[in-house]
Design goal:
23 strands; five-stranded antiparallel beta sheet; 22% strand; Alpha-Beta Plaits; alpha+beta; 20 helices; seven-stranded mixed beta sheet; Beta-lactamase; elongated
Amino acid sequence: MPGRTDPRLRHLFLLGLFALAGVTLLARLAYWQVLDRERLASLAAAQTEQRIEQPSQRGTIYDRSGTVVLASSVDRYRLVASPAQLSPERRAAVAAELTRLLGLEGEAAGQLATRMTSDKGYVVLAREVDATTAATIRDELAAGTLAAVDLESEPTRVYPQSGGAAGTTLAAHLLGFVNREGVGQYGVEQRYQAVLAGQPRVVIAARDVSGRPIAGSEEVLDPGAPGVDLRLTIDASLQLAVEQELLAAWVADRAVSVSTVVLDPRTGAIYAEATYPSYDANDYASIAASDPSRFIDPVISQVYEPGSVFKMLTATAGLTAGVVTPATKVNDSGTLALDGGRAKVSDADRRPMGWIPFSDVIAYSRNVGAARVALALGKDTRTAAVALHDTWTRLGFGEPTGVDLAGEVGGLVRDPAISQWRQIDLANGAFGQGVAVTPLQLATAYAAMVNGGTLVQPHVVAAIGAQEVNPPPRGRVIEPAVARELVGLMRHVVSGVPFYRDRTLVPGYVVGGKTGTAQIWDPKLNGGRGDWKPNVFNFSFVGFIGRQDPELVVAVQIHEARPTVVRIGYQEMPVFSFELFRRIATDAITMLDLPPAPATPPTTADR
């Protein structure tokens, strides 16, 4: 018969196994509770707690007076619900009542019903619920008419000032807007996002089974900091008047867009900056869905060939180099053969004016005269091209101005040191072809011409909180004597040519400037080989106005307009660029309180 096993050995073996298991479990528990405690605690907390970032009150944006609110934040509410807590019948009843309270119809009503009748634990039913409606919802919750719904605070950015046209808000392109995530988009809102938004308040809160924070369970990790207010250089009254002027010109000229900027040439402060078509920043979502290109600000973000307003850059180069003076006679031959006869440039009217003073080359906008001066800037084409290009870059072209707005571009300026210019390139550049610039770049360059030669820093923010903003100038770029001659040339344009004089001068003020007309190249035309758009032009005027000296620079661009009459060298416009300049300049001296200087009494010698 088989041998019998000693039960004591079995008991000892089993006891050893249990002891080993116990020690293992104790060791594992000790590891979990001591060595791995923080990791396990964080995992547990992640299942029961929620980290919440609560946005701070966003800073308010004011105009230059500090009293007109251009952008502010108001309390709105997000309506949320937990349908899973209700029976299907109760969900439908609550959905119907909310649809009535919110005044929803059609697709919006259907979307709310779909969300409310689902079996989800948390859904968003509506956004931007106003305070009055929110109070009514709370009353019905207390009365039991509504259930399983809640209101969460959701600050909303509003732009209270109406713009110069129906369906727009004031300075929409310049301000930009704030999206639902509280992030600034475009303009001032994006550029100063960190300043305006402040620091969010960070809390940890326990969550219920639906994943929603439990009231009273919050632990503050970071108290945050409120956003800082901004005071702009923009004058609200002038901005509104300018926008109204742009709308009228846009309609009259059948233009794709019309833009302007009003700049203080001594400080770089921008008093008004606008484009039409504009948009309603309070309704940015519908614009984003239909035509997001409307958000782009052409004053800083869209380049174009400026045409003859660039002749003042050629004048700057020529006067600086001593190639010409305002009185120097230049041969305006009507056409000029270049590059050994392989190319030529012509005046717009194809009619030679003969030997005329350089001041008349500028006043009558003679392409051939400007080209001759550009060619004379150096001993050969290469050195002349470098001299002209150097003038462009010294005055800020080819790079952003550094204005404190989001989305600025630098333009397109070809460097002759990288890509060699031919004579035709130099001649075209002399009258603003073959380059691409922004209206703000033009305004900034002209400011240097009329303020004595200093390139200012354009800006739109005058103060951040209580801290004044006074950006320093970017340096002297024109000698004072040359700047005085440039002012004289611009005054001669509007006083020496009757066509401009009758539509540009403002009695009691000094006025000067330069026109520009440019054809528009379309690479899609001519079977994809490209061609000029027929009877469509860009019209520009950049000028100054002041009581005794230039005090404001106004740049105007009428983009892709259709003249009512087109002849060689002449286009008839319902509103010319220089007429629009005068209207805006007149608005500016009125809104900015710049009365005309008192008349000087005649002296004995005058009598």
